[in-house]
Amino acid sequence: MVRSVPSIGSDPRLLALRTALDRLRGDLRGCPAWLADREIAERELAALDATLADGVPETGALGESLLLIAAAIGSVSALAPGVHQLRKAVELFGVPHHRLRSGWPGSR
Name one Pfam family in it (predicted). Predict the structure, then answer.
């Protein structure tokens, strides 16, 4: 069975996610600070970007990706606006706020 894949422009959530990914990727490239886990953040941003080719991403995967990216970037204030924009884009897909605040999905 072939799944219909919406174009980025036809779904505002996909457009918001693509815009947030592009912004954070650019912010990360321009950040001169040494980040121990920069490669992890870059790899996860690329993986999220790749999932957009398949249409609407699964919410659990979105939440986990956001947490990995935020953990890899840490508290670098120059990257905070891009991470915030990514979080807002992920929330458009219905990922609950409490799952993003409490840690890994399914953890206690």
Answer: DUF5955
